[in-house]
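Deliverable D5.2: sample structural annotation.
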Amino acid sequence: YYPELYDRVKQAVKAGRWELQGGMWVEADCNVTGGESLVRQFIHGKNFFRDEFGWDVDNLWIPDVFGYAASLPQIMAQCGVTTFLTQKISWNQFNEFPFNTFWWQGIDGTRILTHFPPENDYNSLILPSQLVPAQGRFKEKDVADEVMSLFGIGDGGGGPRPDHLERAIRLRDLEGCPPVRFGTARDFFANLRGCQDSINTWVGELYLELHRGTLTSQAEIKRCNRRLEHRLRELEMLWASALDAYPLTDLDMIWKEMLTLQFHDIIPGSSIRIVNHQANEVHHRLLAACDRLQERFAERLPAADGAVTLFNSLSEPFVGAVVLPFAGKTAVDSAGKAVPSQVEDGQTVALVTIPAQDFVTVRAGTAAAATPAPAGTTLTNERATFVVDAQGRVTSAVCAATGTELLREPGNRVTLYHDRPNFWDAWDIDKFYREERISDAAFTVADLGKGPVRHRLRLTATLGTSTITQIISLNAGSARLDFTTTVDWKERNRMLRVSFPTDVHTQQAACEIQYGHAYRPTHRNTSWDMAKFEVPAHRWVDLSEADRGIALLNDSKYGHSVHGNTIDLNLLRSSTNPDPIADLGVHTFTYSLLPHAGDLPRSEVIREAGRLNQPPVILTGRGAPTAPIPATIRGDQGVELAVVKRAEKSAEVVIRLAETRGMRSRTTVVLPQPARLVACDLLEWTDGETRAAATEHVVDLPPFGLATFRIRS
């Protein structure tokens, strides 16, 4: 908008007077933002700096973000980011973080040099009254002789004022005050390398003991973000099979607008009303753009009247129920064999099986599907049995493989709480909310019947001034019990949660984070444990013993509590500041209960979470494409083919593999024709080992490892 001013900025950067910071596209939230989105924050951020300024930003500069996932160090390192600065952890509610300068080690073992300025402020005024206490607080002063001061108007922008600069000059050599000098962050971190062997290491996430409400506030923004992340993955994979027509410009636009909305007050839900309104408008516009790209891809496929082609983008077979446009008819596969199906509310629901990263075409049959027969409130199949009582509570969950009960008390307890945090309304949840329970939902239960695909119950309740409807369903061949929930939410300063008290004894819960998972305590032994009364998790939280366990999955939620082996999911909030009408309206989401045999790595938790969140792409009136996906994988189920896309700066195909179970894993990359695999960094800037041309390439991954390759002919 201001090219003359922008040119002056470029000249200041060239002259060394302005230092470029951050590496990311925006100062992104690091709790809710997905794993691949964090990668793209660096890809688009660092490419922008390099393309516009000829500069490689090698730091992550995010002073004001509400916690940092334990998978971030690996992502940073593979994007050429070697140092990290934040200030926010000084806001901890209960515990003082023990370091200011330290190594931060992630879940895969990667370490990043990190600094927390001991002024505990990103709006420093350069006053002796701030600098002298900071000198006293600096925990590494026995091995390092410098700290950084983030001075100026940082919260809201504007940078340093003239009086800030004047004070800094006067404090260059003032008796009783730490000497101040101007310098760059790059030089500061370079100097820290001199003491890097003498500083401590912090292992795992950098959990912020504050702003826990941002894991739930503005539910529609969070739901749309997750949908967009999954839609973009599917579209990139589909279009990679039509590289000559790959819609690079369109996908680039969608990615950049979505990444912008991952700014750390937008996706957390802590913005003013107009921002939230615009964010929802943009999200829905981007989802519509994804629909158009999918339609454009479908137009390239052979026409097939009366047929539907289903694409499974997952790295394991999809087995589950899919609603098909064959109202009143059965479904048959390409060989004419009947597919299990039933009619629900005039729609045909079929139980389909689709191989990993593959297509299946089904057609409408001639006979009407059988009407489901009433079956009572015990939902059972060969994998699991669940009992639902007259109030809609799940009183029993038994995994057939173990034959043991997984619930200690009735689950699906939907509870309304008062939600009035002490300070920041949209940002915070305070621990005392547990003492302010209003009431539990008492559902009315109706049996919708059982057919060859699934058994369903309908639950309805009024809670507060809101209404809740749930469809509970158990699919044939699955142990996953789905709760598809619609809430007409009318509350103010209240919170809606659901809990499942389990009969699993473990001292830690596994919680999915970006490209991996982290463990959180189920006890409150220390103040550090107690502070994690609300924690971020993405698609699942699991409690496991050595031979059995139970998980709670979801399709759009992030705030969880695990205490005393009870898994509790935060469904909705209703803050009034800074958005006075936050979250009012109708919300639809699904959470699922999954009992399983074995511990987490040997269970179906990760696979079922994928099936819940990424059902098949439906291409109506089209047959399967003639060109296959340019890369698939087979072998170890712990490896995910996370990305198949066109390269950022060339016409090559790029794939990304992620090890998800925390185990050393092996997979085979299968190509449709012989080609070389060239290892590269996440940015696709630097090439590494080149494998000889072949149709199959065996790849070994360390626990939680990421590996990126170019496919080169």
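Annotation notes: DSSP finds eleven helices and 39 strands in the chain. The mean pLDDT is 96.
The annotation will be released with the project's public dataset once the embargo ends.
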